[in-house]
Queue: 4 jobs
Job 1
Amino acid sequence: MQNDREAKEDKKKMKKESVSLMGLFSAADKVDYILMFLGTFGTCVHGGTLPLFFVFFGKMLLTWQSFYGFYSHILHIPGLRSSCGRTRRFKSEARVCARFLWSAGEVEDGRINSGSGIFGGRSEIRFSGSGSDLVQSFHRLCLASLPLLVWCEGTGVESLNLRLFPLGTTCAYLLAYLPRFWTHKNALYLVYLGLVNLVSAWMGVACWMQTGERQTARLRIIYLKSILAKDITFFDTEARDSNFIFHISSDTILVQDAIGDKTGHVLRYLCQFIAGFVIGFLSVWQLTLLTLAVVPLIAIAGGGYAVIMSTISKKSEAAYADAGKVAEEVSIASYVRLHLHVKNVFTNKVPLA
C-alpha cells in the first residue's frame, strides 16, 4: 500500500513536458512546407473576403437607395451659400458636372425645361458648353434664386460626395441608365469576390487537411519506433500509462485535428478580424473605435471557453484510456481461461459443452 501511494505521488510530481507551437510541425518535410504555405495563403484570403463582401454589398444597396430618390433633392442654391467654402466646393463639383455633360452632349445654356419624366413635373435648369463656360454658368446660378437639381450620394446635403446634374434630354437618359450600370458593376464585384472565396477556401482546407494526414502518418511511425526502442525498465518506472496502442491512435488523431483543421480556422479568423477592423477604420473610424471596446469581453469569453473545452477533453481522454485498459485486461483474461479450458479438454477428454 505504501509503495502504491509513493508511486501515485511520484506520478503527480512528474511534470508534463510542454511542446511549442512549432514542435507541432516537427514531422513536416519540404512537400508539407509547400502545402502549409498554400494553405496559409488560402485561409488568409478566405478570411479577408467576408469584410469586403459587406463593403460591396453596402455599396450596391446605397446605389439603389441613392438613384431612386432617397438622397435626391431639389434645392435653392442661395440657401446653401452661407459660407465661401461651400461655394468653392460647389464650383469644384461643377467640374464633375462638366465632365458628365461633356460626354452627354451639349444643350442650350440657361434653358428651362418645365416638367421631367423622372422627377415628376419639377422644373430643372439645363446648361452646358465647354468646361470653363459651364463652371462660370454654374457660379452665376449660385448667385441666383433658381432651383437646381442636387443629387447626393451620401448622408445628406452636407455630404462630401455631392453631385450636381442639370438635366437635359441626353442627361436624363444617362441618369436613368446609371443605376443599372452601377448595380451591375457592384453585383459583378460580388460574383468575382465569391469566386475568389470559393477558390481560396478550397485551397486552404485541402492543403491543410492533406499536410495534416501526411504529418500524422509520419508521427505514428516515429511514436511506435520510440516505444519499441525503450528499455524494459522504462515501462515500470517512467511510463505514466501502459495503454500505448490506444495513445498511438488517439493522440495522433488529436494532432491531425490540430494541424489540419484548427490551424486553418485560427489563421482564417485572425485575418478576418484584422481585415474587418482595417476596413472599419478606413470607412467609419468612430463606429469602429466603439466596437473595439467590446473586444476584451469577447477575448475573455473565448479564453474561458477554450479552458473549459480543454479540461473536458483531458477528462474524456483519461476515461477512454481507462476503458481501453479494462477491455484489454478482460480480453487477456478471457483468452487465458479459454486456453486452459481447451487444454483441459484435450488432456482429460472433457466434453466441450
Job 2
Amino acid sequence: MFWLSHHHPDEYNRTYVLAGARVCARCLGTYPVLAAVFLGLFALKAPLQWSWDVPVGLGLTLPALLDWAVGRFRPASGSNAVRTLTGVLLGAGLGRSLHVHVQHPLPAVLLAQALLVTGVAVPVILATYRRPRPE
C-alpha cells in the first residue's frame, strides 16, 4: 500500500487512515482534483492556451510546495487540513498542465511548474538530506 502513503512511520501525522490504510493527506487532495480538472477540461473543450496559464499554474503549485518545504525543516509543523487544501490547489494546477501537455507537449505552464518545483525542492532536499530520522 506504499503508493497510498509514501510516508515513513515517523511521518504518519501527515496521513489519514481510510478503511485501515494510510493515505497521504496532500495526495488525497491532489489526485482526485487533478483527474477531475483534466477530464473536465476535455469535456468542456477548453482552449490549449490561456494568457493566465503560467501565473495561475505557478500560483496553484506554490502553496503545496511551500508547505512541503516547511515540513521538511519542521516535521511536526502543519496540519492535514492544510496539506489536503494545498493538494487540492496543486491538483487543479497540474490538471490544467496535463490537459495541455497531452495535446501540445511541454507547454510553458508545465515547464514553469517544473522549474519552480526543482528550484525549491533541490535546495530543500540537499539541506535536509542528512538529518537523522527519529527511531
Job 3
Amino acid sequence: MYNLCLMEIEDHILAQGGQTLDNYNLPVIERTTAANHAQKYVRFLNFDGCEQNQCINNHKHQLMANQREIYALFLDKINTQRCGITFVDAPGGTGKTFLLNLVIAKIRSNGHIAIASASSGVAATLVTVGHTIHSAFKVPLNAHKQDTPTCSMKKGTAIARVMNEAKAIIVEEAPMTHRAVYEAIDRTLQDICGNSKPFGGILVMFCGDFRQILPVVKQGTHANIVDAMLKRSPLWRNVTTYRLHDNIRAQLTNDPTAANYTNLLMNIGDGN
C-alpha cells in the first residue's frame, strides 16, 4: 500500500510537470511490471490466465460459423501485431456479447491487456470487467461541444502506461456514442503511444447495430443526429466490417413465428 501510494503521488507529479519523486526528496520507488500501475488501474491487469482459459474451453465450441470466423480473424490480427479497426455489425440476438467475451478472455489468457468498454453502464456490465467508454478513457462529458476534444490522460501516468501496453480495445454498442468521443480517444492515444496510426496503433473492435439507438443529440435535427454517427467520422474509412447474421436467440425459442418477427424487425431497421 505504501508503494502504491508513492506511485500515485509520482503519477500526479509526472502529469503536472514531468518530474519524479527524487526531485522532492521522496523515496524512489522501483516499478515492477504489475506494480507499475496505480491501484485503481490494476483492474485492467488482474486476471487469472487459468480462469480465462477455462472460459474459452467451456464456450469456444459453442461459437456459430460466422462467430468463429470473426473470432479467428481478430485474434490473428493480435498475434501478428496488426493494427486497425473492426466493426462487428450485430443485430440483437446474434450472439455479439458472447463473441466479445470470448475474444476478451483469449487476449487476457495470454497475459495481454484488453480494454473492455461500452457506450452505457448496462452494456458495460455484460462484458467481462467492462467499463463505460467515458470511465475507461477519461473522456470529457462535453466532448461533442469541443472543436478538438481530448481525454484527460497524460503521458507518464498509470492509465497512459496501461494504454501503451494494451493489445486491444473492445467497444460494445459503439453506434450509441457520438463520434466526437471516438475522435477524442483516437487523438489522445496517438499522443500517448507516440503513434500516428488510428488509436495509436491499438487494435480496436467496435460492435453494435446502427438500426438501434443512435447518438442522442439534445434538440438536434435529423442532420445533427446523422452527423454525430460513428460512420460520419474520418475514422470510419479505416474500418473493416464483419456481420453476424444468425439470430441465435430466435432459434433457441423453438417458436416458429420468432424467425418471422426477427425478419420483420430487420426489414424495419433497413427501411424496407
Job 4
Amino acid sequence: MVATSHGAPSGGRPAEILRRLVRPVVRRLDGRVRRLARQELEGTASSADLAHARAALEAEAEKLQGELADLRDQARSLSAREQALAAGLEEERARAEGLRATLSAHAATTAALGVVAEERLARLALAGHPLPPGLVDVYLAALRPLPEPTARLAVARERAVALAAEADHRAALDVLAEVADEPGFLDYATVFQVAELLRATSRYDAARDVARLAGTGPRARTRAALVRAQTSWITHDHVAGAAAARGALEIDPDHELARTWLRRHVEPVTPPPGDAPTGGIGHAALYLPEGGNFGDVALPHAVRQAVEAATGARPDWVPFHVHQVFDDERVEIANAQRALVVGGGGLFLPDTAPNGNSGWQWNVPRASLDRLDVPLHVFAVGYNLFRGQEFRTDLFRENVVALAEAATQLGLRNHGSIERIRELLPADLHDRVAYVPCPTTVLRHVHPEPPEGSAGSGRVYVNAAFDRGERRFAGGYPRFLEVMAGYVTALRERGAEVALTAHLDADERLAADLATAHGIDVPVVAMNGMTPDEGYRLYADASLVVGMRGHATMIPFGLGTPVLSLVSHPKMRYFLEDLGRPEWGFEVNAERLGDELLERSVDVLSREPEYRQDVSSLQADLWEHVRAAARRVIPPEHGTAPTDG
C-alpha cells in the first residue's frame, strides 16, 4: 500500500529514530488491511462495511503520510543541527589547540623572561642596588623548579661561605657575582646567603629587597619577613620591622624568633629624641633580650655600677645598642648628654653582628663618629678574635684609628688587647690606649649589695662554650670530652658537688655529651634565664668555678670565688697574665689537661680560704684601674667621688 511504500531517510541517528516511530504504525495498518481482505473473501462483511473500512484505512494512511512527511522534515532538521554541532565541536577543538599553543608559547616566553630576570636581579642584588619591583614580579611569576647547581656554582657558594666565616663579606659577594649567570643562582639558600652578606656590608635596603626573591611559599615568606624584621631593627625602622615580624607570625603563630623581633621593635632600646633625657650618660653596649648570654646580660649593669660606685653620681643613663646603626638621630641624642660610654665586652670582633660601617661590633659610620662633640669613653673593651682569626680588610684598622682620635680614653680590658690595638695605631695615638679591666672582675667593689660568699660549700661549677667550636678545640673535642669525664668523676670521688653552668642554651652540650658518651649525668644550671643578681648569688656560693667563657671566669672572680680557666681563646690567657696567675689557666688541648686541672682543683678546694684571700687582693689592684677610668667619665666636680676605695 501507499502507506508502506515510502522509506525513512537512511543513515545517522535521525533515520534510526524515524524507523522506530514508523514501524509500529505500519505493522498496525498492515494487520488491518489483511483482516479486511480476508473478510471480503470470506463474505463475512457487507459492502457497506467494507467501503467504510476502506475509507477509514485510506484516511489513516493519508494521516500517516503527513506525519511521515513531518518526521522527515524533523529528521532533516536534526541532521542539519547534528552537522552544525559537529562543525562547532571541531571549531572549538581547533580553538583549544590554538589556546594550548598560545599558552605553551606564553610559558616559554615567561620562562625565558624569568631566566633573564634572574640574572639581572642577581647582579643588582650582589651590587647592593635597588631591585625594580616590576622585574621582581616577573621573576616571581616565572618561578619554576630550579636545576641542580652546576659544579661552578657549587664551588662558588662554598667559597663564599668560607670567606664569610672569615668575616670577609665583600669578597664573598665578589665570588658570588662571578657566577650570577649560572642557572638556578637565586635558589632558597643563596638568596638568604646574599641577604646576610648585604646586611654584613651595611647595604640594608638591598638585604631587605633580595629576601623577596626566595619565593612565595610559606617557608620562604616567613624567613624573608624575619630578614626584614632584623634588618629594620638595625636601622631603627620599628614600624616596618614590627609589621614584618607580625607577617611572619601570621604564617607561623608559634615562631619564637618572630616574637622576639616583635618585642624588640615594640620596646626599642633607645628612646626617641623627644623622650630621651639630656645631661646624662649615653651608654652604647650590647643589650640582650631575655634568654641571652648571661655574661653579656650582666655586663652593661656592671659598667654603670662601676661609674656610679667610683664617682658617687647617679646619672640618667641613655642606652644605645651597639649593633644598631649609630645614625644622625643617635648622634643628636648622644650630643645632648654629658658623655658617651662604649662598652664593655669583646666588641673588637669582625664576625658577630658584622657591618660595613666600622668593621667591629659598634655599628658607627665614620660620619657619625666625626659628628660626636661629647666626650667619648671606650670602657673595658676587648680585642676578641679567636686563634687563627683576623680582620681581613682595612675597614677595622681605619675605623679604630678614627676611634682613637675621637676618644677621650680608649680603655681596653687586658694588656693583650692593648698590644693588638697599638699595632694598628700610629705611635702618636698609643697613649690614648689605657688599661681598664672588665667591671665584672671587681663586682664586690661596684655592686651596691654584692652577695656574700663563704668557703666550704664544696660546690664546683664547670662551664664550656661551643660557639666557633673548631677554633676553640681545633678538632680535639672528643679527647677534651674524655678528659672532662675523668675530671668530673675524680672530683666526685673526693666529695665535691659538680654541676655545669650554661650561659647559653648551647653550653648545655657538655652535659648531654657526657651522658651519651660516658654515661655520666651532671646537673645543668641554666643561667641565660637569670637576672644578674640571681647569677651572682649562684657563683658567690661556689667553692670553685672552672670557666671556658670569659665571663664564666671573670664574674665569679669579681664576686670573690676562686676560679680556674679552660683556655680556648686568647682573652682568657690575657686575663690571667694580667693577674699574674697564668697557672690558673689550662689549654683545652694540652697533653696533661686532666691531671693538671684535677691537681689544681683539689688544691683550691683544700685551701679555699687562701685562694679567696688571693682573689680579694688581686681585685684591689684591678679596682684602682676601673675607678680611675670611671672618674674620667664623670670628673669629681660633677659627682661625689667616694674616698674609701
